[in-house]
Amino acid sequence: MDLGIYLVGCVAALCSLAVSRELALYVHASVNVFGTAVVTRHVVRKAETLKRENGQSNPPTGCLFLFLLLYVTGWEIAHMSPVVIVVVLLVLVVAGVAGRLCFRYVPPGHVGIVRRLHGRAHPEFPHVTPYATHGVQARTLLPGRHWRVPFLHQVECVPRTTVAEGKIGLVTAKEGRGRPSGRTLARAVSCNSFQNGEEFLLNGGEAGTQVGVLAGGQSYYINTELFEVQEVDRVHVPTGTIGLVDAKAGKVPPPGSVFGPYVECDDFQDGGRFLEGGGQQGKQLAILPGGAYYDINPALFDVITVHNVAARGGELTDWHLREISVPADQTGVVIALDGAEPKDDRPGPSVPGHQGYRLPWVFLANGGWRGVQEETLSGGTVCALNPYFVRVMLVPTHLLTLEWDEKTPSEALTNYDAHLGRITATVQGYRLFVDVKQLLQIPAASAPELVRRNGGGQFSGIGGLQYDRLPVQRFVQRVLGAIVASYFSQIANALTVREFLRNYRDTRLDLATLVENELREWGVESKGTHLGEFRAEDEALNEMLQKPAYEEMRSELLTLQQDNAEREDAIDTVRVRAEKRRKALDLQAEIETLGLDNVMVLRMLKEITQAPVPQFISGGDLSAFLETQPIARLEGLLERMRGLDPGAGNESTEQPSLPETDADEDGMKK
Q1: C-alpha distances in angstroms, 149 versus 102, 146, 154, 185, 354?
Q2: In the beta sheet, which residues pair with residue 341?
Q3: How far apart are CA 167 and CA 359, in angstroms?
Q4: How far apart are CA 660 and CA 614, in angstroms?
């Protein structure tokens, strides 16, 4: 601006040459005085800036021009008369004071709002105007010095608008065109984040709440007479959850439409693009992934998160807003709550491109059916799905054990075999109770049909992840329960109690075959059928049934004891034979070593030494005493020795005998 004033003065000096040379000199000298003051101020500020930033004290650029300007000004003043010099100085002082009054300074961190005090008001913009008419000017002044005509303009400095971190600025325009009937939000207008009020008004900006918002953590030079900014919280979707979006503005959806069309709008942060792209009011197919903050205009979109779902009430809960996690031993059967009408009685065929139902608009665009889907979510899948669009039901793919027995109250509520009671068969008037156990496995490919045919395909209400055991329980009850009950009812009518007991093993085999064939029709694998013990309601029959078994077990026990006794006798016989053989071998070895005679003598001496001798004898009968004497025992020993068989070690076959003595001969003669 200073340069412009100087150039205008130079042009005025040139024009004054047409009047006289002296007038041109006076005008140019005055202009040079003004230029000298301006350049001097610029050079001083530049020198101070260099010294503060770089520590340099060298003269900045512009000093040469200043010296030249001083020289020319001094030469021109030297050729002027003193009266003229005084007049020029007075004129310069007056001009300086007027210029001072014309300059307005806007401090840093502020914005200057200009109000034109005189003139006619614009009929379209009576309060804030983009034109040079009466009223608040839409264009603002940034920090710095600005030239405004005094008494024509009033400048008010206000702090710039700052939006705090974690907040967004919701903008309302106080001036602008009127909105069409039925539209609650003003259309988006390019205006540099509402910092260019003149462009906002000239481009057709509308009064009222704006679609665009101001991002947090920044400051904006906004005309507060044109715009009002209100801080609101950013939308936060915690990790592991999702955010559902309802549009408050947009086109009216057609009758029967559940969702509006998908519009790419940067996760609903670009409201202008949403409206321009044909976005409709109501529930949106796209969701907000968890673990992020979003700058979403609350006047345009209503976002449901786990933070505010409880306060809203209704069917929707925080459980519906959590990511869907399918356990590794189960599969997720998907029920689409919107889509084309099914063409036949089967699960909906696979649809390409929807990335596991994460892109529901692709599913709908490619003709996806409503209801149970053929494509399932495999075990271990974790995904964020719109509960307004799909419902996921878990079906176990691990080995299931189903038992026909008495259930506790907790088992009756949670077990897949909750509706299977103990089997009762009435045979010849006797009620027999049978325990049955079935092992089976449901492949993931068979789960959709199982759910569809057992009451799990409803597509009303809110979806999300559901731990509903009812479809599998119904399958177990309607298929397995009916087959087993019917089978036992048939054989009970055809067999007697004795035949029932005798054919119990065949009954298990027949039942296993029947169950396996039926499960094969459902695509379910049978892993085994087991029959447990049976029990009669009549205790007398139980005793009769138990008695043969008891006798049979007792007979087996006695047979086992007999076998053990015979084995013990055989062992004792072997031991006796071995002992005899050992003694015979010892005697034979002793005879071979010492000779038969010596062995007989040693044995007699040993026998004599071991003979018992009474300490005293009473009575008159001496027969007992004589029996204890060594002679009598010796005779018995001799008899035994004569009967010894030396065995194989003695080559003579004659019976060994002791040599006869004189005493023996005398005894024999007597």
Answers
A1: 5, 10, 9, 38, 65
A2: none
A3: 30
A4: 31
What are the DSSP calls for 284-324, one per residue? -S--EESSEEE---TTTEEEE-TTTHHHH-SS--TTTTBPE
pLDDT tens-place string over residues 460-471: 788 899 888 889
Q: What is the distance between the alpha carbons of residues 644 and 235, in angstroms, rounded to a whole number?
A: 118
- Read off the pLDDT of residues 394-425 as tens digits, 9 standing for 90 and up: 999 999 999 888 877 777 677 898 888 887 77
Supply 301's token pair: 């979109």
Looking at residue 546, what DSSP letter applies?
A: H
Please give the structure tokens belonging to residue 424: 């009762």
Q: Which two tokens stand for residue 511?
A: 């039942």
pLDDT of 378: 94
CA-closest candidate to residue 214, choices 235, 194, 185, 186? 194
**Strand, coil or helix: 336:** strand
283/463 Cα distance (integer angstroms): 14
Q: How far apart are CA 64 and CA 62, in angstroms?
A: 5
From the list 481, 363, 356, the residue with the least C-alpha distance to 416 is 481
Q: Whose CA is closest to 530, among 415, 432, 423, 395?
A: 423
From residue 109, alpha-carbon distances to 106, 114, 115, 142, 656 in Å are: 9, 17, 20, 9, 145
Q: Return the SS3 of 516.
A: helix
d(CA 89, CA 80): 12
Do 259 and 327 form a contact (C-beta atoms < 8 A)?
no
In order, the DSSP letters of 453-514 are: HTT-----S--EEE---HHHHHHIIIIIIHHHHHHHHHHHHH--HHHHHHTHHHHHHHHHHH
The per-residue pLDDT for 637 is 57
